[in-house]
Design a protein that fits this description.
Elements: H1 10-18, H2 22-38, E1 42-47, E2 50-55, E3 70-77, E4 80-85, E5 107-111, H3 114-133
Antiparallel strand pairs: 1-2, 2-3, 3-4, 4-5
Length: 137
């Protein structure tokens, strides 16, 4: 088994969010809280120059280039947050939240504002829970 990893860095994520334009920062913080509250084994850090969330529990060994721990990375645009699920294609998304059909397996979810977070929050948590169920522990 691959041991649980302990590279959570909430302080850096908080600092990152505090530097954002206030309205976008509010959206990102709300998404952060939704994601972290979905499962106790979700960790956070800044990766690829953005807040990123990963499975921090034990997993069977795997090639790190397969990104099996990475759940979702925020890609921030002017005024909105795009959530990138690097391995989102493996999730059977009955909610319709995940968009795109990329050959590399990623899927996207767009959050334009706080209204979007409120409307899509439960779907986001369902997708993450489904993703966690597929982990090879």
């Amino acid at each position: 088994m691959s041991k649980a990893i302990d590279v959570c860095d909430p302080k850096t994520v908080t600092e990152y969010i505090q530097k954002l334009e206030p309205a976008l920062g509010k959206v990102v913080e709300a998404l952060r809280q939704l994601i972290l509250s979905t499962d106790k084994e979700i960790g956070e850090r800044v990766k690829w120059n953005s807040p990123a969330f990963f499975y921090a529990g034990e997993m069977k060994p795997f090639n790190p280039k397969e990104y099996r721990r990475d759940i979702v990375v925020l890609n921030l645009h002017r005024g909105f947050a795009l959530l990138v699920f690097p391995t989102g294609a493996k999730v059977n998304d009955a909610t319709g939240l995940l968009k795109g059909d990329y050959k590399d397996g990623r899927r996207l979810a767009e959050f334009l504002d706080m209204n979007d977070v409120e409307m899509k929050g439960k779907a986001l948590q369902k997708v993450i829970k489904q993703w966690i169920k597929l982990i090879d522990k």
